[in-house]
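Entry 14. Ran structure prediction on the chain below.
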Amino acid sequence: MRDAAAGVDTPRPLRLVLLPGLDATGTQHVAFTAAMARMGVVVTVIAYPVDRALDYAALSDVVRQALPTDGDYVLLGESFSGPLALVIAAAPPPRLRGLILSTTFARSPWLALRRLQAVLYRAPVRALPMPALSWLLFGRWGSPALRAALQAALARVHPQVLRVRAAAALGVDVAAQARAVDLPTLCLHAAHDRLLPARCQRHLSAMLPAQATTRLDGPHLMLQARPEAAAAVIAGFMRGVYDID
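Output, structure tokens:
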């Protein structure tokens, strides 16, 4: 990219496309987006419909239609969206340069509970207590601001949409697609993830042929709770993908 006033070439900002977690509004990533911007990375969040109950297959179509076509980018799948990112990276669009998987999975760690999917379709998602959700998703990094942002994000999404997404995550298995990914990949795991068991993290890292794994001190919602630390690791990985010193 050329700076006409200075008459010199300036580097184009790196681009990260973020597929957010279960609420998929993207409203919880303000601090992370700002941290990435300070490191020269522009973040584009693809939010999912808040009023349409779509499974992984339908969401994959939504995401593919929203992906950039005007430049290279790295795709990040967070939590619920990890399987989506893996499916897309297994048959990558032309401008996709790399993949980042943050506190997520290729195969549901709760497959044994698939019989509960029917129950999830009637679960009172609005009644889930915020202190319990905060303990599960933020751990000791929880704060009034993080809890308020989580509550506001969940409130924007129709309850049936949340139920369908939770049921989809309960039964998902994209291990075959994960093994087909040959893009540079970073697995970002949380050392204090109370939602995903450690075996799930090991399983994900082991099946990806071209990956690096970083384990950060933090909770399941790593990008929200530890935005600076996560951004530093992600920006370093992206500079390697783009071959920037």
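The two ends are 18 Å apart (CA to CA). Will compare against last week's run tomorrow.
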